[in-house]
Write a structure and sequence with these properties.
The complex is a heterodimer of chains A (421) and B (258). Chain A contains 16 helices and ten strands. By secondary structure, chain A is α/β, with parallel strands linked by helices. The mean pLDDT of chain B is 90.
Chain lengths: 421, 258
């Protein structure tokens, strides 16, 4: 049995790793029954792989058998890869033992579509049910919903999971149908609707009676593959922005397309995954969620794609010089957030500290403002220095153009995310 | 010329608060506060050894309770746990500013000392979080889950509540190899423990020697290492990013990097 488990781990980890969702936060499950575990409100990353991604959950597929044949997927039906399946006991056992050793925050369970969506969903529900009820497991559980699964299976699953997700993968329905003929938007969006419905009903019930069961307390997320199909950043970000308007969607993940099935000519022949573009999309996503930007300020018909050589916040600032310079000691929070070089932490520190006296550029630097960038967009206690108007936007565009990185690996490397803190 | 004043004390938090009390009571401000057994500086004019008195330290703390929010008090204590060089003087300046001011100064990050205290507190909090992330328990033959750690600051006491709640049904020990003491949870409470040097060697090399580990342990370690290796997407290989999030100094006790 033991050798067998090792082989299964190799196959099914390889199969599961392309789903990039990694959070273990936004839920607070407490250990009230002398069971195992608890959930940390802000999530915990226990390790980091050699590609720099965080490991917070035991991310695994129940099986990599699949009846679908999606072009971009390594597990597609027509690929000749070794196929295997975990038993329920194996999965439960591994999850709990890893958890006890503080390797993981919980389980991320996905699966190929085995026989049909409902059958697969039922198997997955057995695993999480056993964890929660038989083993009193209170850690984090992220359960994938299988596109096409029926509503009452989703309703069952939601009672055990902290987060559920369905991956949209392709941001345009026609392109999706081209690459994954067995899927369509209806089969993807209906489980998302069922989950949202379950969440809203549960929160209504909990208002009346606190002990009513929680339903997917950490909400939903989804994933979009970047670069496997020709959508523009405008299409992608508009889709994300619309998704965020729904109350149950917490995160959209962007996954640079890893060329897996190069023999299939519906897919582009990329030399390497579009990691810079992926990074820019995450920066744009952050602008929408934390910096109060609306999507058309970042991308629109005039600029449908993000500038690869400049972060989107700086890009916006250079396109809108009339808004600057702002007075650090007087401007409202929303405007301070728009200054390149000032992140959320610095903006908050500025707001509270300036009540004690006007802030100087030295104090701003100590607080954590990147003065090299911000100096062109603000005035503070001293005389205004060279602002964007004296120096001219075109010059700044040259200055902040992130040229190819010094080493040879330019596009292939994921840039570190500089949130200008 | 202003005389150089030295305070010495017993290196406890209550001792530090007693120093504050002394300074206010005698109206003498120190230039340096250091532990009584540390080598004294070459030149000083006056030296006072402060005796720790519970009454006095309590009074100082109560006056801080009146001036500082709970968050700020926690921050101050975090700075104490950092054990960095000359932390006492930084804390003394912070406390003096807080006490002397009639309005609340704790949000005045334009002030150097207030900002530094918050920055160090942040580093300490971050180290505690990293310990929570990177602690790896190994199951020993007698069923106790043992985790050696080597933190920069004295923070394992900050992680106790988290682990007590999470692993309520297993006995565990978290051992600080730098400071030579550990915390042991025996299913009902947490106690401080120390170990004999010989026993220690077997446990703190990194991976538990096979004769000390339970059978399960060896199996699950291998599965975990294999899982970890297969998670990497080769096309996104980026060891620099990995190091940024997980500095090498933690690798000794990380199962997957052993």
């Amino acid at each position: 049995m033991k050798d067998n488990t090792l082989d299964k781990i190799k196959i099914l980890t390889d199969a599961a790793k392309y789903d990039v969702s990694c959070s273990s936060s936004a839920s607070s499950r407490r250990n009230l029954n002398k069971g195992v575990g608890s959930v940390a409100q802000s999530g915990i990353c226990h390790s980091f792989t050699a590609d720099g991604r965080c490991v917070s959950l035991f991310k695994i597929m129940m099986t990599n058998h699949c009846i679908y044949d999606c072009a971009y997927c390594v597990n597609r039906r027509t690929n000749d890869v070794p196929r295997t399946t975990f038993t329920i006991e194996e999965l439960v056992n591994l999850t709990i033992e890893f958890y006890r050793r503080n390797y993981i925050e919980g389980l991320f369970l996905s699966s190929g579509v085995h026989r049909n969506p409902d059958y697969t969903m039922q198997q997955m529900i057995q695993v999480v049910k056993s964890l929660r009820e038989k083993h009193r497991f209170n850690g984090y559980i992220h359960l994938k919903s299988i596109p096409g699964a029926s509503q009452d299976l989703i309703a069952q699953a939601g009672l055990y999971a902290d987060r559920m997700s369905v991956n949209i993968e392709i941001a345009d329905e026609n392109n999706l149908k081209l690459l994954a003929p067995e899927k369509n938007y209806e089969s993807i969006f209906s489980p998302m609707r069922y989950i949202q419905q379950g969440m809203l009903e549960s929160s209504e019930d909990r208002k009346k009676m606190k002990s009513a069961p929680k339903f997917v307390p950490a909400g939903q997320s989804t994933q979009l593959i970047i670069g496997a199909s020709p959508e523009s950043d405008k299409q992608i970000l508009n889709l994300a922005s619309n998704l965020y308007k729904r109350p149950s969607i917490k995160r959209v993940y962007y996954s640079g397309y890893i060329p897996v099935n190069i023999y299939d000519n519906r897919l582009p022949a990329l030399k390497s995954p579009p990691l810079v573009r992926e990074n820019r999309l995450y920066q744009a996503d952050w602008l929408m969620r934390f910096y109060q930007f609306s999507v058309h300020e970042i991308v629109n018909d005039v600029n449908p794609n993000l500038d690869l050589q400049m972060d989107p916040k700086m890009g916006w600032a250079l396109r809108n010089p009339h808004v600057f310079p702002i007075d650090i000691n007087k401007a409202p929070y929303e405007m301070i957030l728009r200054v390149p070089g000032i992140g959320i932490k610095s903006a908050k520190l500025i707001i509270v500290s300036r009540r004690y006296g006007k802030l100087t550029s030295d104090q701003l630097r100590k607080i954590g403002v990147v003065m090299k960038r911000a100096q062109y967009f603000i005035v503070c206690r001293e005389l205004p220095m060279n602002t964007i108007h004296e120096v001219k936007p075109e010059y700044l565009k040259q200055l902040f153009n992130e040229k190819k990185l010094r080493n040879k690996h330019s596009d292939n490397r994921q840039l570190t995310l500089n949130w200008e803190e | 010329m202003k005389p150089f004043v030295l305070f010495t004390y017993d290196k406890t938090f209550e001792g530090f608060l007693s120093c504050v009390f002394f300074a206010y009571e005698q109206k003498i401000n120190p230039d340096t506060i250091q532990g009584e057994f540390e080598p004294k500086p070459l030149f000083f004019d006056y030296s006072y050894h402060i005796i720790t008195e519970e009454e006095k330290s309590k009074r100082v703390w109560i006056s801080l309770e009146n001036k500082l929010s709970l968050l700020a008090r926690k921050m101050l204590f975090n700075v104490w746990l950092s054990e960095i060089h000359e932390v006492e003087m930084l804390m003394f300046r912070y406390v003096s500013k807080i006490i002397n001011s009639s309005i609340s100064l704790e949000m005045n990050f334009g002030d150097d000392d207030i900002l530094t205290v918050s920055k160090i507190a942040k580093k300490v909090g971050s180290e505690a979080r990293k310990v929570i992330q990177f602690v790896r328990f190994q199951q020993t033959k007698d069923g106790i889950y043992f985790a050696p750690v080597a933190p920069r600051y004295n923070i394992i006491s900050m992680t106790v509540n988290h682990f007590k709640k999470r692993y309520a049904d297993q006995e565990w020990i978290i051992y600080d190899t730098n400071r030579k003491f550990g915390l042991y949870y025996n299913l009902s409470e947490v106690k401080e423990v120390t170990f004999d040097k010989k026993i220690l060697e077997a446990f703190t090399e990194g991976a538990l020697k096979n004769d000390k580990a339970s059978d399960n342990e060896i199996f699950f370690k291998e599965i975990w290492k294999t899982y970890f290796q297969h998670l990497t997407i080769k096309e996104r290989f980026n060891p620099q990013l990995q190091l940024q999030h997980m500095p090498k100094r933690y690798w000794k006790y990380l199962t997957e990097m052993q």
